[in-house]
Write a structure and sequence with these properties.
By secondary structure, the chain is an all-alpha fold. It has helices spanning about 5-25, 30-35, 40-65, 75-85, 95-110, 110-140, 150-170, 170-180, 185-205, 210-235, 240-255, 265-275, 280-315.
């Protein structure tokens, strides 16, 4: 068994172990029944919200690519994003989907490093917006929290991302690091790093690029909060929106930890912590996590169908 398979097996084991622990005292039949009884019209509304987020994410990606003089049809990028959502199911965090996007669009752009840069900055800007919201909302509503220590997690992530962004923006520290490690002497690697940093410079210098992608990132993250809030109303959880504003960004940061498959286990633990903080039961938290995965999985299957159709068309 190669290293990649071993890593996958470990992450799968972590997901299964966490889920088994969290769901050990829960009636799964009741949970499945709740999911099965979701109104079809409401499900379409939820799908519409997910599709809206896919569209604006594609728009953000296109803005980055255009700044690097990569001109591709919006429908090509949208298709790639939809299919990537399907691949995210099988990999930790968003690694699977991002890898697909890089490979797919690099074939069309003939600029693999610049394409990688666009996906990397796309993801980094999303985490930056997420960390800000994950810190600011709980800070504003800290009087509603039982344990304000939860603020340290997003604040720590925020500081890490700020350092990363500053390093990319300034570039002097990065290039100094390349010199002292002598990585800049490896011609191929040095060339790739130069291309990547050239793309970052293009994003920085092209007027309006950074404000636009950050604006889209904040809209995306708030729409995720709204999606989870509306999802909770389908099963009768009358929890005020402010609580979702405080906890959903934290849960999103938690499920992004690349140590499980599709965030399963970590996401469930996040919802259990969230729901017990607002006076709900552990079973309610697990039900919410299960419902979230069920709905997003159904949506992601659209990308799976698109991938099969594309493979047949290209063969």
């Amino acid at each position: 068994m190669d290293k990649q398979k071993i890593t996958f097996a470990i992450k799968l084991l972590i997901s299964v172990g966490l889920v088994a622990f969290l769901y050990s005292k829960i009636n799964l039949g009741d949970v499945v029944s709740l999911v099965a009884n979701i109104d079809g019209v409401f499900l379409l509304i939820l799908f519409g919200i997910l599709f809206f987020n896919t569209v604006i994410s594609t728009l953000k990606w296109k803005i980055l690519l255009l700044a690097d003089d990569i001109h591709l049809p919006f429908k090509n990028l949208l298709s790639s994003y939809m299919i990537a959502s399907f691949f995210n199911i099988f990999m930790p965090s968003n690694i699977g989907g991002d890898s697909y996007r890089i490979v797919d669009i690099a074939k069309q752009s003939s600029k693999p490093v610049h394409t990688f840069a666009s996906v990397f900055i796309d993801r980094l800007s999303g985490f930056f917006a997420l960390s800000i919201m994950g810190f600011v909302f709980p800070l504003v509503g800290r009087g509603l929290l039982e344990d304000s220590k939860v603020l340290f997690v997003p604040f720590g992530i925020f500081l890490i991302i700020v350092i990363m962004i500053w390093s990319l923006y300034n570039q002097k520290l990065l290039r100094w690091g390349l010199r002292i490690t002598r990585i800049d002497r490896i011609t191929k690697v040095s060339s790739m790093i130069d291309q990547f940093l050239d793309s970052v410079t293009a994003y920085k210098e092209k007027k309006g690029v950074i404000p636009k992608i950050m604006g889209v990132s904040f809209v995306f993250q708030f729409t995720v909060i709204l999606f989870v809030y509306l999802l909770s109303t389908t099963i009768g959880y009358n929890i005020p929106l402010i609580y979702f504003c405080m906890f959903v960004p934290l849960i999103s940061l938690l499920e992004a930890i690349p140590a499980s498959i599709y965030g399963i286990g970590f996401r469930d633990a996040g919802y259990v912590i969230f729901f017990t903080q607002v006076g709900r039961t552990r079973e309610d938290g697990c039900t919410m996590a299960f419902l979230y995965v069920a709905v997003t999985l159904l949506y992601a299957l659209i990308g799976g169908v698109m991938f099969v159709v594309k493979k047949k068309r290209d063969s």
